[in-house]
């Protein structure tokens, strides 16, 4: 009981109220309202003189609100990046190669290479070919798919249809592989 009274008697323990409200010597308003006072410039001068630290805060706040060249620069950078990206995409040889390879006495398989140069997921592509031609199809190398069947000629229609970014002209017919 006595302890509690001691705590309550001193204003220092209740830090939450008026203490952090600073009144302006020019307009007599709390300083956060100064900017609404017609003579804000005079308030700032008073702040600079009497409360330099508060004045710094006001200055910083102002510059943050100000949409300076910063934003513009960022936007320009982003645009520049975009251009570089599209340029990069055009670089490098992009070509699909298809060929027929003999398997067994009468059978042949179709080998497709170069799909990954178009950022195509080989697993997805192999599955697609398997479903399209109703036959086995698997990824057999870093950028190679083997389709269990002679479907080479069909690929010139099927590939551009599935991936419009691949023009028929970008598919090279390597003919028959001989072993
Ligand atoms: Zn003021």
TrEMBL record:
Q: Where is this region: Disordered?
A: 62-100
Q: Which residues form a coiled coil?
A: none
One Gene Ontology biological process: cytoplasmic translational initiation
One Pfam family from the UniProt entry? DENR_N
Tell me the ranges covered by the SUI1 domain, including all copies.
Answer: 96-163
- PROSITE patterns assigned: SUI1
Q: Where is the composition biased (Basic residues)?
A: 75-87
Looking up NCBIfam families in the UniProt record yields: DRP1 (TIGR01159)
Family statement = Belongs to the DENR family.
Name this polypeptide is given = Density-regulated protein
Q: What is the lineage of its organism?
A: Eukaryota, Metazoa, Ecdysozoa, Arthropoda, Hexapoda
